[in-house]
Predict the 3D structure of the following.
Amino acid sequence: MKTLLFVWYLMNGTLIPQKKIDGDWTYRIVFPTADECFGKEVDYAYKEEVMEWIESGSFEYNEDLTFNN
């Protein structure tokens, strides 16, 4: 279900691909209403952070994020 929502957000402009950093895509999230911590947008969120936002409903940068490339 998370993957379906991820694709839906890409299609409707909620998620906007930005650039690759160390081989992993980052995304801009455009919130429908202003988030109390981040305002209306979040920049340079990795896919794992986006998936956590989809699951939990609140966004948080993960400074300890590791990749299994």
